[in-house]
Write a structure and sequence with these properties.
Elements: E1 5-6, E2 14-22, E3 26-33, E4 38-45, H1 48-56, E5 64-68, H2 73-80, E6 87-90
Helix pairs in contact: 1-2
Length: 103
């Protein structure tokens, strides 16, 4: 798996985080940098294979991916573990990022 941060020559290391909000039809995914700036947002089919493919196509390495805890999260988490990324459950997807707060 790629390193957890990107470091363009002459710049500081930047960590990226993702949060997944799962629903019956699709998952809403948001990727932010360490300061909370949104880098990318998308609606992705909720199946583990679709999410793994979407994250694999990202051009930024992820330090952590937060998965909203809910009725589908155990099934989804089991399917996502094989990807090699660091997954965590959150009360809400925004809690996966250190610079964002849950209200």
């Amino acid at each position: 798996m790629a390193a957890a941060s990107a470091k363009p020559q002459g710049e500081m290391t930047v960590d990226y985080y993702a949060g997944i909000d799962v629903s019956l039809e699709c998952s809403s995914v948001c990727v932010v940098d360490g300061l909370g700036k949104i880098v990318r947002e998308a609606k992705v089919p909720r199946e583990p294979e679709s999410l793994i493919a979407w994250f694999a196509a990202l051009e930024v390495p992820l330090a952590r991916i937060g998965l909203e805890a809910g009725p589908l999260s155990q099934w989804l988490f089991a399917g996502l573990q094989a990807s090699g990324w660091q997954w965590s459950f959150s009360r809400c997807a925004a809690c996966a990022t250190p610079s964002r707060r849950c209200l």
